[in-house]
Design a protein that fits this description.
The structure is a single chain. The chain has 202 residues and is α/β, with parallel strands linked by helices. The protein is 22% helix and 21% strand. Helix 1 (33-42) links the parallel strand 3 and strand 4 (52-54).
Amino acid sequence: MSNIVFIMGFNYDSNCYLINDSILVDTGAGHNKDYLFSKLKENGVKPENVELIVNTHCHFDHIGGNYLFPNAKIAVHELDAISMKNKDSLGTSLSAFDFEGDNSRVDIELVDGDKIEDFEVIHTPGHTSGGICLWDGENLISGDTIFAGGGVGRMDIGGSYSDMKNSIERLLELDVKNIYPGHGPIVEQNGKEHIKMSYSLL
């Protein structure tokens, strides 16, 4: 099982997750470099040694710090890669943030079923068309698809209610123990119950 380090989002930042000391899931909005780098270093990781960034979706509070990791490859679902590469300010919600750096680079376009070490990529559209979760048989890194306490990602900025409902139906089939969401607290031990709550609120 992979080692997952939870880095709580600061201010506008999404949560970030360090996997096996070399993979970073989401990078926040890019405004709090010192905070993010300090958390990496607290866990014995030099920022320049991060090898892979996995973005759970293309919104700027998740991709805004990508430019801080020039040595890392950037991976995102192929559908959300379109907004990033085209610098689509609506698709990335860029207009809500002060722009720092160029976060249009995409090195790896992910699809459903891809493997990232112990994790399987699950395409979970709804919040965006190319949203993903990462699943290793116990832990679900859920991006902005679902949150602790039954929340779901907003669907009014490039999202879809029907896609979200279908995605959460798919997640209900998994025996999820722990949830690592894009914002807010993590869920330990009873993740499946939180997915049920999310579905019941749709």
